[in-house]
Amino acid sequence: MRNKTLxxxxxxxxxxxxxxxxxxxxxxxxxxxxxxxxxDIDTRDRVIAYAHNCSAGNQWxxxxxxxxxxxxxRSIQELWSLSWLDYYQLxxxxxxxxxxxxxxxxxxxxxxxxxxxLEMLRICMVDYLGGPLxxxxxxxxxxxxxxxxxxxxxxxxxxxxxxKNPLTDVYALxxxxxxxxxxxxxxxxxxxxxxxxxxxxxxxxDSPLRDEQGHVTSAKGLTPVxxxxxxxxxLEDWNKEQGTQLRLMGxxxxxxxxxxxxxQVAEPGDAVAPLDVEELTQYIKERLGFTLDLRTTGAGxxxxxx
Length: 306
What we know:
By secondary structure, this protein is of the alpha/beta class. The chain has helices spanning 6-11, 61-71, 76-81, 84-91, 97-107, 116-129, 135-139, 155-164, 170-177, 187-201, 224-242, 277-288, and strands spanning 24-30, 33-41, 47-52, 146-148, 153-154, 244-252, 255-266, 293-298, 302-305. The longest helix is centred in the last third of the chain and has 19 residues, at 224-242.
């Protein structure tokens, strides 16, 4: 990748030499000028040349120039999957005022203008391919496993993320995969997959918990909601005293699943003491009068540096 800031792309653009031979192009009227992009594609369906005719100083120049950094050497299949997120991730590596302004626009949701070169690229792809193809045809995925049609997210992608972090919820899927973040029609499917995967990976017991006499244990006949209400102030006090962040994730009988995340003042490189489950179990027993089976699953350690 070239070491040019977005401002340098604006004042001294790259990819301005239009190839003599090219396979596809697209153009559009912008203000008083007509802007066009040109692609030459080899027999392996990879871009071997890209060019644009957007002159230096035009408000679009940097984005058409930067598009070349994204697409050179890529296959048509990869090109079709390019999105404004790819633009955002690329531009985040630049630190001049122009790129920072673009990121501000992105964060505020004002991204339509900057993404226009990508739309022209898509027109080129449709022209080259001879017509629109389904997302499954372009990605080689089984269309029956497509969960989010708005952003082309498949079942296996969701499950792979949940395997890495079973505590992932729908909001995290919205952020990390964009699944469910547009029309929302796939939210119920996402919830179902989350439930299925959590049952696989979270440390719930396979059978009911029993005491020393073999009797099934219970939390004094409390429902999960009632038990959660009793636990909330106890965990809050523990967090304040111990400098931790415990989050109640699930209740099954007397089995309690907690997410742990340490939040303590520490010097960089210092070891963080793991959660003492036995001590917490005794702490809860003293407060509530009965014993719970605590299991923890970590979500990383957050340090507050002094």
